[in-house]
Amino acid sequence: MSNKAVIFDMDGVICHTNPYHSKAFQVFFAKRGLHPTEEEFSQHMYGKSNSYIFRHFLGREVLGDEFAALEEEKEGLFREIYAEKVTPITGFMEFFNDLKTEGLKTGVATSAPYANLALIMSKLGFEPKMESILASEHVTNHKPDPEIYLKSASNLETPPSQCLVFEDSHSGVSAALNAGMRVVGVLSSHTRDELPPCSYYINDYQDVDIKLVERIFAKR
Questions:
Q1: Which residues contact 37 (CB under 8 A, 6 or more apart)?
Q2: CA 142: distance to chain centroid?
Q3: pTM above 0.85, yes or no
Q4: Among 15, 57, 76, 86, which residue's CB has the most CB atoms within a 10 Å radius?
Q5: Element at 186 (helix H, strand E)
Q6: ∠ at Cα 43 (38, 49), nearest 5°?
Q7: Closest residue by Cα to residue 120 from 86, 76, 80, 72
Q8: What are the angstrom distances between the C-alpha of 217 and each of 13, 160, 184, 214?
Q9: Are 37 and 30 in contact (CB under 8 A)?
Q10: CA 29 → CA 33, 68, 77, 83, distances in Å?
């Protein structure tokens, strides 16, 4: 399968970070007199870009220097909370290493800032084996726009039709489908019914192996 590639989102796919993003946003918004519920976070935070999250919860567009400052404040809170708790979703590293043994190209494509990705890569050590690494700074249009996945395919020198994406959010699954890729839905943050139709669904990486990946690629 050396002519095929597997691309992973990060939050909720490599690591179950969403509870820690919730904690960081709770602190961030509380400083501004706002107290979103977990249901609101589920609908308007998980899998969304910070530009969307700020616009939704603050009720206005946040741009330029103000956006950069607010994003660094919130993501700094997240990294402070999460730094000593970085743990991959069960089975991820074993599955990832199996992909590399089989010769598949791999990439990561996240809507999060690169500093968050760098934190996780420094703890888990998979960076040298990723042929494509993209974060929010590397694209103009965020998920559900397919830009980050099309750019990943270009980096991996693999046609979108030969890429399999692991995603956990509605916007992320939509982005991968919009790019013409197959998708495995990771049910860490949403139920199967809350996601667009995927080729397969997993709770964690104990539910997937190389033979399953081969079967997904074989499907028309």
A1: none
A2: 11
A3: yes
A4: 15
A5: strand 182-186
A6: 105
A7: 86
A8: 20, 12, 11, 5
A9: no
A10: 6, 16, 12, 21
